[in-house]
Amino acid sequence: MSSTKTPARDNKKRREKEEDDEALAVSRDKASIRAVRVSKWYGKVTAVADVSLHIGPGIWGLLGPNGSGKTTFMRMIAGQITPSVGQLLVCGEPTFGNPNVLRRIGYCPESDSLYDELTGLEFVTAMAKLSGYSGEGAKKRAKDALEEFGLEEAIHRKMGGYSRGMRQRAKLAQAVLHEPDVLILDEPLTGTDPSSRQQILDALRARATKGAVVLFSTHVLHEVEALTDRLLLIARGQVVAQGGMQDIRELLDEHPHHIRVQCDRPRDLASALLANEKGVVALHLPAPDLLEVRTWQPEETYQAIAEQVVKGGYRCQSITSPDATLEALFHYLVERANRGAGSGADAGTGSVRTLESRSEKSAYQQQLTPGAGSS
Amino acid sequence: MSAPPAPSFFAGVGAVVQLTLLRTLRGRKLRVAAIATLVVLLFPAVVALLEEDADAAAVVRGGIDWGFFRLLVFLLPVLFTSGMIGEEVENRTLHFLTMRPISRSAIAIGKYIVGAGAALAVTWAGIILLHVIGFATEPSLMIDELGNTARAGGAASLLILTYSGICLLWGALTPQAAGMISVVHLGFFEWFMALVPGSPRLVSMNHHARELGGLERAGIAEWVPDIELWTCATIVVAVWLIFTALAVLTVQLSELRYGKA
After folding, report:
1. What is the DSSP string of B173-227?
2. Mutate to test the interface with A, among B99, B103, B258 (most CBs of A within 10 A)
3. A115–B259 C-beta distance less than 8 A
4. ipTM entry
5. I need a labelling partner for A32 at 20 to 30 A (CA). Which of A163, A246, A262, B128 fits?
6. How many other CB atoms sit within 10 Å of the CB of residue B51?
7. Which residue of B has its CA nearest to A70?
8. Distance from CA of A174 to the nearest CA of B (A)
9. How confident is the model at residue A356 (pLDDT cuts 50, 70, 90)?
10. Helix/strand number for chain B, H first, E second
11. Could you read off the pLDDT of B229-253 as tens digits, one per residue?
């Protein structure tokens, strides 16, 4: 039995290996980021948990609340740190201490620390030399990059005197000066004014058009909307959703909202709302002057609360929504993902999937296939 | 997209040296080092210029012994090299180097060259100045004693190279406390142990360098074994190379505490 099975198994393994090699060869040439069951932890703290994804050319937004693992994930991609387990490949190769791949990566870190004693031109020229340019070529590259981000007036000024927005643009200039295939930008729009924001967005779009992978992180939804429709949502170190802006919007709408009303007679208000409002799914009285409403129809419920407050003559101190934020959405998605953990939907990849209900499952699987991420 | 080929190892070292040198020249540390050296030179200068009967050779040797072997050889490497890696990790600027397509070893070596080079430059400037001031009143001795001063300066240089390697290693291993741990290491193993009697003194490179430099033994010099000069030199060079290689290896392999966001 075993003698007949072994050659077949060997053939299968060989085929698989050939396919893997082929995929790797393709991804080596092509700008791509591929993570296979990547985790990173520091002692008992898990920063990134079992992330699998494959992304190709185009602009990708990495969206997540503070402390969700965005920066750690980006540092791994940029070769600053290594995964604790799993495999992270950029253009088909691991990044940590690998000059062959690092030359194809541009990284704009989140921190706005710079070499304050240097001028913008000196700094970016030094970065160009470290990227492989020499002499005048490096200086020209540096000048062009700084000009692209509107810093031509300030290139001879020491960076210690730069504003936050200027520092951000200097960091971006050093990230793009060598025309990288993969551009990793950690909160690139922080501290920028509207006009420089536009310059930055144009520069990123231009790179993506030329075939680069541009992955940028933010915790502000409208920043993503200005730049891309392709999103990765990360929370508690997990990629909890991947898809287009519309999908995220729908998830926001799907997400049950909480509304907190501080007033003098919350019990009366609660009964009035229950009688009149269809969208309300739960009511809670956590304090003598507090009513918490859980609803599927936040707009209608806000309207109904306002009407009841006026009609019933309540003395209302505040109406707030503690969770009408991305943070709440992420929390919701993680909970949803955890509830579905036993389904085995992503058993092969280890990543968490939350959008399959809208027939994107095949697209998602395609994205996990080498070369298909840009589609 | 057309990223250029990764630079060679030596081109990488060169680029790191250029950048680090520019930062060092613009920074405060060079000024602090220059002021410290001038303060150290003040005492022998006053003695040499005001005391007509002073033995110029003794003044210069005393200046080298107390000012350099007991003070500046410790201060300068800590000042220039312990923060080379650590401060950049703390300030979150090391990303700009480690993200580039150069070997991490090139980063460590480039920084070591500038740190140790700056300490050597200040030391030699100080020693030459001391020599000139010390023998200002006796020009003939200035030439005759040049060999002795150069020998002491050479030993101090070897010591600075070694201490710079030690400081670089602690900077890579413990970026957040590099200066303090370097001071503790040098203070105990090098400064204090160079004063103790007997064989334990042999762990101090300062002791071996003093022998190489032709200086008197410091502290309680009883029961200290005599070692041939070439053995002293070999020990110091070996320790220098070991610590520097460990520092380079640490930078090459370590995440340098980037983990904490």
Report:
1. H-GGGHHHHHHHHIIIIIIITTTS-SGGGGG-HHHHHHHHHTPPPPS--TTPPP-
2. B99
3. no
4. 0.90
5. A246
6. 12
7. B261
8. 9
9. very low
10. 12, 0
11. 999 999 999 999 999 999 999 999 9
Calpha distance B197→B206 (Å, rounded):
14
What is the pTM assigned to this prediction? 0.80
Give yes or no for a contact between A97 and B103, defined as CB atoms under 8 angstroms apart: yes
- Chain A residue numbers with beta carbons less than 8 Å from the beta carbon of B260 are 42
State whether residue B198 sits within 8 Å of chain A by CB: no
Report CB contact under 8 Å: A212, B1: yes
Mean pLDDT of chain A: 80
* Token pair 């080596």 in the structure block, residue: A28
Residue A344 φ/ψ region, left for φ over 0, alpha for ψ in the -120 to 50 degree band, beta for the rest: left
* Distance set, CA B15 to CA A108, A314, A362 (Å): 20, 71, 48
- Across the interface, which of A67, A75, A130 has its CB nearest the CB of B258? A75
B7 neighbourhood in chain A, CB within 8 Å: 129-132
Q: Whole-angstrom Cα distance, residue A229 to residue A307?
A: 37
A237 phi/psi in degrees, rounded to 5: 80, 0
CB neighbour list of residue B245: distance below 8 Å, 6 or more residues apart: none
Binary contact (B6, A174; C-beta < 8 A): no
Q: Which pLDDT band holds residue B97 (cuts at 50, 70, 90)?
A: very high
Numbers of helices and strands, H then E, in chain A: 13, 14
Enter the tokens of residue B158: 């070897």
Tens digit of pLDDT for each residue in B110-129? 999 999 999 999 999 999 99
A212 touches chain B (CB under 8 A): yes
